[in-house]
């Protein structure tokens, strides 16, 4: 049997006590692809992300990279970047030291390694804020710090759990643009959890819609690039309308016949 190339997420079953929350998931994602994960609240999007991150090993299945386990049981993959719903900055560390925290293992292991923290802070527009404390930053600046921390290790795998959900639209749009620029330079494989279909359409190459009970991939959708990075542009709105007209029950988490036909496919509109 030929080995699968890329990241393969194969979940036979994930339970919380006696309740099966995820089942029959089998997707393969090449390095450099930006994949959004969309579904209703409570469907298991964050649970799936935690499994890939190595934070939850209590499931039946396997998460592989090029046919071998992504990480040792109970450990996170090397060179992993993560961005959460909240910035999760250490309040007792300066902004610069929060970013350098992601490099701590490499700095300790390799004396020739030169920290990239200052360079990343410059890249995210915080070059003069390295000595500031997290509590002195605005919400948007804290999110920029979290992005710098995720990218300072130049991750091959980036996991993001609704990172812009609590920001106002102008601040969120600025950070989406910054994320696009960082991804264009580093080219990580991205798994990006969101509730917002338009955000997924603007950022992602591909969208995995989770639904059903237990949750599975009810639609694997290849995004047709509109050329617009504005969530509210006519082009993005039209693409969203066509998608939801074809799959009207998609965001409810309930599969429909059309979605079932496209299960694990590469449907695009």
Main sheet strand line-up: 6-7-8-3-9-10
Report mean pLDDT, rounded to a whole number.
90
- The structural class is alpha/beta
| Number of helical regions | 9
Low-confidence segments, given as residue ranges, are 259-265
User: Roughly how much helix do the residues carry, as a percent range?
Assistant: 25-40%
Describe the structure.
- There is one protein chain.
- This protein is α/β, with parallel strands linked by helices and 269 residues long.
- The chain has a domain at 91-154.
- The protein has nine helices and ten strands.
- The protein has helices at 45-53, 95-101, 104-109, 117-123, 139-151, 169-186, 197-203, 234-246, 257-261, and strands spanning 7-16, 19-29, 34-38, 60-65, 68-69, 80-83, 157-161, 189-194, 206-211, 216-222.
- It has a six-stranded mixed sheet with strand order 6-7-8-3-9-10, sandwiched between helices.
- The longest helix has 18 residues, at 169-186.
- The chain is globular and about 55 Å long.
- The two termini are 33 Å apart.
